[in-house]
């Protein structure tokens, strides 16, 4: 059975899509990048909605350790790196693995209430911090230094974050489809 304007395997009615609420268009460069980033953050959250701990922690296919929970943890780490460490020059150690250790954010993503709750809390804290940093930023060309000593502008960080979320929301589409058959949107 098909609901008007929505195939049965879609997530929500288009009118109820949280990405459409408070959406902006025809803004300047900063407003445009912020809007795309807002929409992709909401997309990641939407892809995880209604799942239990086991479903969130379910791995894709071997040898990958990717899961929706791992993506939440990974994006918390990415937000933390770019907005706390790079743009704000704060001493903010990694949350999920030591420097140089690959995939701690994914490897530690297990179906435990504490781990799942902490992942959501961490992600929301990092998103809120990032939103505050960007809201106070007047110069998209302001330069910061990344961990490799490279110069990077606020503009480049925002574009990178849009790209990072877009890529991982694609992964989230496939992970969610594997869990319960729900696709796209």
CATH superfamily: dinb family like domain
Distance between the termini: 18 Å
Output the helix-strand order: HHHHHEEH
Q: Cα-atom Rg, whole angstroms?
A: 17 Å
Briefly note the CATH topology name.
Answer: Four Helix Bundle (Hemerythrin (Met), subunit A)
Structural class: mainly alpha
**Residue share in helices?**
40-55%
Task: Give the strand tally.
Answer: 2
Given the structure, what is the number of helices?
6
Question: Widest sheet: strand order?
Answer: 1-2
Approximate shape: globular
Averaging pLDDT over every residue, what do you get?
89
Account of the protein in words:
It is a single chain. This protein has 185 residues and is mainly alpha-helical. The protein has a single domain, classed as Up-down Bundle (Four Helix Bundle (Hemerythrin (Met), subunit A)), CATH 1.20.120.450. It is 54% helix and 3% strand. It has 6 helices and 2 strands, in the order αααααββα. It has helices spanning 29-48, 53-57, 68-87, 104-107, 113-136, 154-180; strands spanning 143-145, 151-153. Strands 1-2 form a two-stranded antiparallel sheet. Strand 1 (143-145) and strand 2 (151-153) form a beta hairpin. Helix 3 runs parallel beside helix 5. The chain is globular, with a radius of gyration of 17 Å. The two termini are 18 Å apart. The mean pLDDT is 89.
């Amino acid at each position: 059975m098909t609901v008007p304007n929505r195939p049965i395997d879609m997530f929500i009615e288009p009118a109820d899509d949280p990405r459409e609420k408070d959406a902006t268009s025809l803004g300047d460069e900063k407003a445009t990048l912020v809007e795309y980033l807002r929409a992709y953050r909401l997309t990641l959250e939407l892809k995880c909605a209604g799942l239990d701990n086991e479903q969130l922690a379910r791995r894709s296919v071997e040898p990958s350790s990717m899961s929706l929970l791992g993506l939440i943890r990974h994006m918390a780490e990415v937000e933390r790196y770019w907005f706390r460490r790079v743009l704000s020059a704060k001493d903010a150690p990694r949350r999920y693995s030591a420097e140089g250790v690959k995939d701690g954010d994914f490897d530690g993503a297990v179906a435990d209430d504490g781990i799942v709750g902490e992942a959501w809390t961490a992600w929301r804290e990092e998103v809120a911090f990032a939103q505050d940093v960007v809201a106070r930023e007047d110069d998209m060309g302001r330069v910061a230094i990344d961990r490799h000593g490279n110069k990077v502008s606020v503009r480049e960080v925002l574009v990178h974050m849009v790209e990072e979320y877009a890529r991982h929301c694609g992964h989230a589409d496939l992970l969610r489809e594997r869990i319960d058959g729900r696709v796209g949107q």
